[in-house]
Amino acid sequence: MRILHVSTTLGGGAGKAALRLHEALLDRGVDSHILCKDFGGVTTRNAHRIQFQPNRFQRLAHKLGSTYILEKNIRKTKGATHFYEFFSFASNDLDITRHPEFEKADIIHLHWVGNFFDWERFFTSHNKPVFWSLCDMNPFTGGCHYADGCNKYTDTCSSCPQLRGTENEQNAALNLSYKMNSLQAFKGKLYPVAAAHWMKNHMENSVLFKPLHIEVIPHASDEKIYRPTDKHFCKSVFNVPENKILFLFLADNTDIKRKGFDLLLDALKLIDTERVHFLIVGHVSSKMNLPAEQFTQTGIIRDERLLALAYNAANAIIIPSREDNLPLTLIDSQMCGVPAITFDTGGMAEHIIEGKNGFKAEEITAASLANAIKRAISGLDEIKAEPLHQQAMEKFAKPVHAQHYLSLYKRVLEK
Q1: Which residues contact 233 (CB under 8 A, 6 or more apart)?
Q2: What pLDDT does 84 receive?
Q3: Is 278 left (phi over 0), alpha (psi -120 to 50) or beta?
Q4: FRET partner for 168 with CA separation of 20 to 30 A, picked from 203, 268, 286, 355?
Q5: Closest Cα partner for 316 from 263, 352, 274?
Q6: HSE (CB half, 13 Å, CA atoms) of 321?
Q7: How far is Cα 318 from Cα 406, in angstroms, rounded to an integer?
């Protein structure tokens, strides 16, 4: 059995999720390979890169820094649209089915593949079984990666709210139609996998994935890295106050609305912050001007061992995402025995038990988040790291994750 994992990058949360499964399968003796457009600074066995040359429009858009959208037929200026985060099209100049590793594989396993390959070429060029571990909503929408409350992906994606102010607001509808036609032409079998029931519910309501059987398998952590470590030592590494409760916030970019950093800042206005301190991991806009006596900023941390120390330095992690699948920040913090404070939404809602391994804000508001933080300040002493770690090991350790997928792979190949 030869598996080819396909991921746009090996960096970032989605890339890590693909990489962890790939390495877990290698540890089990499986002939696993991974194909990407960008290594993302990561080195691993059996990794292959496919070269991509951006066209003139993509290079110009990137140079101008006008948008994350680097696709054809999209024109916008900053502030001209209700643009939420990312937007990716299904048409692309890359045909990954011609890569030698693709031809050798028995199973193709897609992960986060935004802006990577062309759907029509991919689904009409082979009949190999395809697994797809969804990291966000893009595979079944007209281009957005999170819908921000919009449910047009259940029908046609017409007049996309995230394309307001662009050249053609109907591009999402055209893109969804292109995906539908490509998928209907596929002669093989597609096996979608959701990391959370929240995502599965969206998939089952989507016009693209509604007819398909959908499995639920959470993402994996790396149990060799993410485990409880002496908290006093970890706090000393980041030079944070020993005598205060330390809350961790982690996101590549705090400006991303979906991640909810603005809600956290508003929530802090409603609590007594004398007893608490915040460790912020990720890019923070200089315009925010966070006071040093209350916030310690590290910038983006790519080294996973250092990242594990950041988790362990915290008494709790705050994940105020308005919308999320099952972020690795939740999984890795649980593996470190660190409770989480989240909204009662997405994959977080399925894994956080109030007062046992974290605290949930029932409404997506600053006031509700502030109340959850207050409950955490009062109840953190009742949550012990080692039992929390052991519970997380049963759900998120790489060997457990690999076994789930191996069972699926074998079931498909034996048909």
Answers
A1: none
A2: 61
A3: beta
A4: 203
A5: 352
A6: 22
A7: 33
| Residue carrying the six token digits 């009949």 | 127
Nearest to 395, CA basis, from 318, 334, 354, 319: 334
Alpha carbon distance 62, 267 (integer Å)? 35
DSSP one-letter code for 46 = T
- The yes-or-no answer to whether 2-220+397-413 and 231-396 have a common fold is yes
Determine the Cα–Cα distance for residues 32 and 49; give it in Å rounded to an integer: 15
Token output for 235: 């706090």
Instruction: With a cut of 50, list the residues of the chain below it in pLDDT.
Output: 61-62, 64-82
Q: What integer pLDDT is reported at residue 66 of this predicted model?
A: 37
State residue 55 phi and psi, 5-degree precision: -80, 180
Q: Are 252 and 222 in contact (CB under 8 A)?
A: no
Fold of 231-396: Rossmann fold (3.40.50)
Q: Over the stretch 346-355, which tens digit does the pLDDT of each residue have?
A: 999 999 999 9
Asked if residues 68 and 81 have their Cβ atoms less than 8 Å apart, the reply is no
Q: What is the mean pLDDT of the chain?
A: 90
Which residues share a beta bridge with 134?
Answer: 194
Q: Please list, in sequence order, all residues whose beta carbon lies within 8 angstroms of the beta carbon of residue 363, skipping any fewer than 6 positions away.
A: 343
Name which of 78, 107, 134, 75 is nearest 326 in CA terms.
134
Contacts by residues 271-274 (CB-CB < 8 Å, ≥ 24 positions apart): 271/370, 271/373, 271/374, 271/377
CATH superfamily of 2-220+397-413: Glycogen Phosphorylase B; (3.40.50.2000)
**pTM exceeds 0.85 for this model:** yes
Domain ranges of the chain: 2-220+397-413, 231-396
Q: What is the CA radius of gyration of the chain?
A: 21
Please report the pLDDT score of residue 166 as a whole number.
74
Residues in the chain: 415
How far is Cα 291 from Cα 350, in angstroms, rounded to an integer? 34
Dihedrals phi, psi of 267, to nearest 5 degrees = -65, -35
**Taking a C-beta distance cutoff of 8 angstroms, is the pair 178, 139 a contact?**
no
What is the torsional sign of CA 298, 302, 306, 308?
A: positive
Q: 174 — alpha (psi -120 to 50), left (phi > 0) or beta?
A: alpha
